[in-house]
Amino acid sequence: MSDERVRYNDTDLQEFKAIIKEKIEKAERDLQLIRESFINDQNNGTDDTSPTFKAFEEGAETLSKEQNSILAGRQEKFVRDLKNALIRIENKTYGVCRVTGKLIPKERLLAVPHATLSIEAKNMQK
């Protein structure tokens, strides 16, 4: 009979839950900042400057908006992954590798709280 734990105990799960909720709050604040900078026109009153400079400025502004859009998408995925981790905590499946079925080490979960794969499983994907 294996003495390997099948899941984290309720005390551990509550500890992870607190960490994840804190990360969600910060991630949502960061997402809001990204969205605000995306929406903000940030016109610096350069309408009357040389057309050459205006073209450069418009190109940079477009690039900046594209970068913000990419950042916002990544941040939205991060928040979604963290919220999914909360669901796994409620289901008491949090911390169980979805490939190997083994417990993901606590150190990994503290570093990447939304992880669903152990390092072993991650290496098998390569």
TrEMBL record:
One GO molecular-function annotation for this sequence?
Answer: zinc ion binding
InterPro entries reported for this sequence: Znf_DskA_TraR
> Which residue stretches are annotated zinc finger (dksA C4-type)?
97-121
Which positions fall inside the Zinc finger DksA/TraR C4-type domain?
A: 93-122
Record-linked Pfam families: zf-dskA_traR
Keyword hit for Ion transport: no
Keywords in alphabetical order, please.
Metal-binding, Zinc, Zinc-finger
Entry-linked PANTHER family: RNA POLYMERASE-BINDING TRANSCRIPTION FACTOR DKSA (PTHR33823:SF2), RNA POLYMERASE-BINDING TRANSCRIPTION FACTOR DKSA-RELATED (PTHR33823)
Q: What is this protein identified as? A: Molecular chaperone DnaK
What organism is recorded for this protein? Chryseobacterium luteum
